[in-house]
Amino acid sequence: VQLVESGGGSVQSGGSLRLSCVASGYTYNRYCMGWFRQAPGKEREEVAAIDSDGSMRYADSVKGRFTISHNAKNTLYLQMNSLKSEDTAMYYCAAAISKWWSLLVRSPSLGYWGQGTQVTVSS
Known about the structure:
Layout: E1 2-6, E2 9-12, E3 17-24, E4 31-38, E5 45-50, E6 56-58, E7 66-70, E8 75-80, E9 89-97, E10 112-113, E11 117-122
């Protein structure tokens, strides 16, 4: 399984970015996919995810501002609007079998990860 992210960058507070993650090497509908982020000195945290049944969930801090989606070509997106300085972090795309998804932060080896893309929001 390979995950390749793109779309990070620098933006002013209130701006927007769209992250993309191209996935290959597995059957999409068997996996949960999503985005995590990690800011310097902080633990990696889940931002948004789409489960294999199509259900979506978001961290409370991004609800109403971020939207996760995917297309039929195994590309996962994260549309980020109304960005805040506290959204600054390295963003990682991840994929894992659904039953292991909740364990990913503590046990990253249970899933697959992209290389990360930096998002910097200046106030």
